[in-house]
Design a protein that fits this description.
- This is dITP/XTP pyrophosphatase.
- The structure is a single chain.
- Strand 1, helix 1 and strand 2 form a beta-alpha-beta unit.
- This protein has 202 residues and is α/β, with parallel strands linked by helices.
- It is 31% helix and 22% strand.
- The chain has a seven-stranded mixed beta sheet with strand order 2-1-3-4-5-6-7.
- It binds 2'-deoxyinosine 5'-triphosphate (Y43) and magnesium ion.
- 2'-deoxyinosine 5'-triphosphate binds next to strand 3.
Length: 202
């Protein structure tokens, strides 16, 4: 069995691959296809953007797809970068520049005021059926400097107090137990179980 994840983000693809492979489901993504233009993320929320991406690609290819719209919400920045996480430092979408911008904006802010969360909305779109959308969270704090080399995006500056490590200091297997993406996928799985389709809980 195969599922298409409507993303061009290598980091997301790699995480979905390891999460789905344990169910024997093969993950393919827009990186495996040619000539699929970027879907413009014009929504005000992660859910809206996830639905936009899933339905656009589903309509284009006429197969079921899952999309992921995710990002980082920082309390001291009134929720920024939020839905603009990928393009926070500009439309070139560079992780290093994005992290530098966040670290600069938080300069002088003490640890207890650096609370933040990763958010992931997953939308599941099927030809001729209603789209289903779920949201998962992961709470943490923004570090003063980068720590770790695993993961992608803002992982090196995202600290998990309970684990006393940054997200980039976790293995993929560890991240996939606690991440916003994993938490959203569990909810999607509940939906699949109710509908008796695609895959079953182990
Ligand atoms: O687990 C994560 N660990 C660290 N950073 C993360 C994570 N999850 C999302 N993020 C950041 C990366 C990017 O700055 C933004 C996603 O933006 P988002 O538009 O959803 O993805 P994208 O443009 O890279 O790929 P696509 O739209 O093709 O799925 O949030
Ligand atoms: Mg995007």
């Amino acid at each position: 069995m195969q599922i298409l994840i409507a993303t061009k983000n290598k980091g997301k693809v790699s995480e979905f691959q390891s999460m789905f492979n344990q169910y024997g489901i093969e993950v393919i993504s827009l990186l495996d296809m040619e000539n699929i233009p970027d879907v413009e993320e014009t929504g005000d929320t992660f859910e809206e953007n996830a639905i936009l991406k899933a339905e656009t690609i589903c309509n284009k290819l006429n197969i079921p797809v899952i999309s992921d719209d995710s990002g980082l919400e920082i309390d001291a920045l009134d929720g920024r970068p939020g839905v603009y996480s990928a393009r926070y430092a500009g439309s070139h979408k560079n992780d290093e520049d994005n992290m530098n911008k966040v670290l600069n904006e938080l300069e002088g802010i003490p640890n207890q005021k650096r609370t933040a969360r990763f958010i992931c909305a997953l939308a599941f779109a099927r030809p001729g059926k209603d789209t289903f959308v779920v949201k998962g969270l992961c709470e943490g704090e923004i570090l003063h400097d980068r720590r770790g080399t695993e993961g992608f995006g803002y992982d090196p500056i995202f600290f998990l107090p309970k684990l006393n490590r940054s997200m980039a200091e976790l293995t993929k297997e560890e991240k996939n137990k606690i991440s916003h993406r994993a938490n959203a996928l569990i909810k999607l799985q509940d939906f699949f179980n109710e509908e008796d389709m695609l895959w079953q809980k182990p």
